[in-house]
Amino acid sequence: MIATACGVFVAFMVGMAYAAVPLYSWFCRSTGFGGVPQVASVAPGQILDRKITVRFDANVGAGIPWRFEPERTSIDVRLGEVVTVFYTVTNLSMQETGGQAAYNVVPTTVGAYFVKINCFCFTEQRLAPRERREMAVVFYVDPELMKDSDQDDLNTITLSYTFFPLRPTPRKGGVADGASPAGTERKI
Description:
- The chain is of the alpha+beta class and 188 residues long.
- It has a single domain (32-187), classed as Sandwich (Ctag/Cox11 (Pfam 04442)).
- It is built from one helix and 13 strands; from the N terminus they run αβββββββββββββ.
- The strands form three sheets. Strands 1, 3, 5, 7, 9 and 13 form a six-stranded mixed beta sheet that branches. A five-stranded mixed beta sheet has the order 4-2-10-6-8, with no helix packed on it.
- A hairpin with a 5-residue loop joins strand 11 and strand 12.
- The longest helix is centred in the N-terminal third of the chain and has 30 residues, at 2-31.
């Protein structure tokens, strides 16, 4: 009986070890913990007069030959106002490359109030040699922020992206293949 109980406990702990990363990711996406923005499909019902400055940060991880920069470095938005901002990305190499953007907001306590409707970061991006593309992020700062007394002094949010290289996925003939980009970008 003790051996069975120990075996069940060990199996449970191994299962929890494998489930820890997806559960933590789900928790962060659901609560905004750690600066993970929320995702919505529609705009909020109201726009308030309170303004917040949203700053934009763009980074490229090691191993991806891209130049990545925001169209503007900051913008003032009213709570509940839906805003579209573009980032420009350029493949500096002579071959097709792919990347996926990781993102967060700072201060991390506002992750629950920073809501994306559409974003290039939701999908893998593939760029042809020397291709330059504008990619959009559509977001708003939730008016519910006004009800959080811990955010009364908040006047600036930083939205930060870092592109990391995709791992090549082999296809027939041994040539790497990847997903096509979503409809949030435009070639320029």
